[in-house]
Amino acid sequence: MKILKFGGTSVGSHENVRRIDEIVKGQNTPVIVVVSALSGITDTLLLTARTTAEGGEFTTGLSAIRTRHEEMAGQLFAGEQLNRVLSKLHPYFEELEKIFQGVSLIYELTPKTLDKIVGFGERMSSLLISEFLKAELIDSAAVIKTDENFGRAYVDLDKTYQLIAERCGNLKGVAVAPGFISSSSNGVMTTLGRGGSDYTAALFAAAMDAEKLEIWTDVDGFMTADPRVISKAYPIPSLTYSEAMELSHFGAKVIYPPTILPVYKKGIPVQIKNTMAPEAEGTLIGLEETDWKDRPIKGISSMSGITLITVQGLGMIGVTGISSRIFGVLARKEINVILISQASSENSISFAVDSGCAEVAREGIEEEFTAEIASGRINKITVEENLSIVAIVGEHMKHSAGIAGKLFHTIGKNGINVVAIAQGASEQNISWVVKHSDLRKTLNVVHESFFLSPYIELNIFLVGIGTVGRDLLKQIEQQQPRLMRDHRLKIKLAGVANSRKMYFDRAGIQISEVESLLKSSEEKSNMTAFCQEMIGMNMFNSVFVDCTANAEIAEHYHHILDNFISVVAANKVAASSSFSRYKKLKDTASKKGVKFLFETNVGAGLPLISTINDLQRSGDRIQRIEAVLSGTLNFIFNTLSEEIPLSQAIRMAKEEGYAEPDPRVDLSGIDVVRKLVILARESGYEIEKEDVKMEPFIPQKYFDGMLDEFWKNINEMDEEFEQRRKELAANNQRWRFVGKLENGQAEVALRIVDARHPFFDLEGSNNIVLLTSERYNEFPMLIKGYGAGAAVTAAGVFADLIKVSNI
Ligand SMILES: NC(=O)C1=CN([C@@H]2O[C@H](COP(=O)(O)OP(=O)(O)OC[C@H]3O[C@@H](n4cnc5c(N)ncnc54)[C@H](O)[C@@H]3O)[C@@H](O)[C@H]2O)C=CC1
Ligand SMILES: N[C@@H](CC=O)C(=O)O
């Protein structure tokens, strides 16, 4: 025999009732179908009853209940059968009306009367369904026996099992039973508590030693997290009884927790199934899980609307009976305590309750401890509101070291403050309290870090869509399928800005639509507002990517890192600003556990900074750097010819995407000064830009004034350069703009090199770096390759992004 329970949504429409018929027909064993009231009916019954007791009218509520059932009957039956079903339904409406009239006369609604009223929902739905399935109707109230604790009666299990077995022992086909309702030994109607239809089904299953209990609902089973918050949540194939209990306790409203006990005692498996998608596997609950045996954590549950109350005082230390008095008060006031946390010093006890009961709880505690508060032995009762509880659940957490460490490290790294923690000695559940505003981020972080997510998400906020930024977007779009497939990495563009507009979307911005979305966006580009929005979005694994050359944007890095957001910069301004600022940014990143990466600041995509970092970390010491670090200048010197004068070569470098947004930064030598300073600092030298000796090769007057004037006047230098170029060519010599660091002294200057020099053959916009260190001494390390350009620079930024993701 099988017991199939269908919830309110599953019986809430005639289409769904027809689905139930199909599901039941597919069974090849006797079946008892337990049903809830039609969706929304229990709420209407409760509301109408309460309104009536307060002097309001009941006719509207009653007529809505009547219409709903009559309409459903009209959709399920026709002709004679419809008349017959309606004639069976009408006595219920009449009886209900009489009860409401009684309540309206005496303005009183006892728990006993309320149980009688709410039980009508299941009585009427079971009538409709049994008629439609042409099944026997079992009166659950006659076989489930309880005490008279109305609203949530306690079941006499022995008596109930005996009566069910007697009533259903000879059942051959299909029977339908209302959930939720029961009766006392005096025959008074009682109910099993909200959600009690699951419990009814479990009682039938246990009494009949059923082969399986199936709970048919409107979700695909227990999910790894709340799917309304985590779009990547997916069904858990199997759980043990205790895991299901733990998950149900904190929010996963898939099954009513008391349901588990009767079936657990008899070892009856419970299958959660979706009535709307019967083909989905669902979740199987049993003594042992059938899947995911290697996963320490099966799911995350969460609960919002939580208030944490803390009772604190030095006078509590070593005093017995404090806890018993606190929880005694709460028990007397019928306040459910959701989580408890006590410091081992015993000077404080914190407990979490539903915010709706917080005020009553606080008043009760203050009253109980009036004397201790007056004498100062208890000095504080604090109430923290707007909190949420999150719990990870899994039987294999037991004796598995490192779970809590990893959990709180990951949470902390994402800037989430943990307000309180509790872990049961059973080690199946670790629960903690966070601000409600951090709940989404917490769930995402935990879901990902414990591999409950099919992929890791990196949320990027990109500023600057020029040569590098545009290519970066193109590369992300092209590489995304491979990253998802091979590395479980999904790069999500959550915010973007050009110099005019900005646009955000937590769900992710389609890269192909970036330009048009920015064009139509109402939000004007503003860095302060951009940071505010990005930080306010409070997304986990966030990275700010700066593909501008803007100094104002670089000013915001500290604030961004301080808010647990990594920074990847192609922009060289921050890393080459004052040493104290550079150091502060690095220290902040390290303190906050995020990354500040700027590999492309020197040599574009060449692995220069990472190589220097590796040498340093492994104990080497950089003694000397000699390098060509300007792609633009190298390109210009390799391009100048009789046909191509200086001014034209500069324009070509700009068109090729090598030059800075303002090419005077390249021509003045400032770009190389910045790069040399960054390399020196990464090599451990405390150096400022002003410390670098620079010999300009173009007169200062061309750099003063506006950019337009520069473009207008720079051809004045063409002739002189052509003269000098000819002389060089005649001597088989070339110009190279060289940066050098030696004995802590840095200089940049235009050099003339001949064919014997290693820089002589440096082609196009290539860069070259010779690193002399303690280990690479007689033969320095040489790194050479493209030193500028959209594709290689964007690839370098991309590589930094991948480093942030830690895949
Ligand atoms: N192009 C190259 O080969 C390399 C460039 N870099 C660095 O990459 C950065 C970007 O260079 P490119 O893409 O070549 O320059 P670009 O001039 O093509 O792009 C910069 C973009 O930033 C935008 N922008 C400026 N201020 C802004 C603001 N306040 N808000 C939003 N957007 C703003 C500009 O409108 C422009 O679209 C620069 O810092 C450069 O030094 C680094 C290595 C190589
Ligand atoms: N303008 C720079 C670009 C790379 O940093 C250069 O030309 O090297």
From TrEMBL:
Q: Name one GO molecular function term.
A: aspartate kinase activity
Which InterPro entries does this entry report, sorted A to Z?
AceGlu_kinase-like_sf, ACT-like_dom_sf, ACT_Aspartokinase, ACT_dom, AK-HD, Asp/Glu/Uridylate_kinase, Asp/hSer_DH_NAD-bd, Asp_kinase
- Protein's pathway: Amino-acid biosynthesis; L-methionine biosynthesis via de novo pathway; L-homoserine from L-aspartate: step 3/3; Amino-acid biosynthesis; L-threonine biosynthesis; L-threonine from L-aspartate: step 3/5; Amino-acid biosynthesis; L-methionine biosynthesis via de novo pathway; L-homoserine from L-aspartate: step 1/3; Amino-acid biosynthesis; L-lysine biosynthesis via DAP pathway; (S)-tetrahydrodipicolinate from L-aspartate: step 1/4
ACT domain: from which residue to which, for each copy? 311-392
PROSITE patterns annotated for this entry?
ACT, ASPARTOKINASE, HOMOSER_DHGENASE
Q: Which reaction does it catalyse?
A: L-aspartate + ATP = 4-phospho-L-aspartate + ADP; L-homoserine + NAD(+) = L-aspartate 4-semialdehyde + NADH + H(+); L-homoserine + NADP(+) = L-aspartate 4-semialdehyde + NADPH + H(+)
Please list the GO biological process terms of this entry.
homoserine biosynthetic process; lysine biosynthetic process via diaminopimelate; methionine biosynthetic process; threonine biosynthetic process
Under CDD domains, the record lists: AAK_AK-HSDH-like, ACT_AKi-HSDH-ThrA-like_1
For activity, the cofactor(s) needed are: a metal cation
The subunit field of the Swiss-Prot or TrEMBL record says: Homotetramer.
User: What does the protein in this record do?
Assistant: Bifunctional aspartate kinase and homoserine dehydrogenase that catalyzes the first and the third steps toward the synthesis of lysine, methionine and threonine from aspartate.
Q: What is this protein called?
A: Bifunctional aspartate kinase/homoserine dehydrogenase I
Q: Source organism lineage? A: Bacteria, Pseudomonadati, Bacteroidota, Bacteroidia, Marinilabiliales
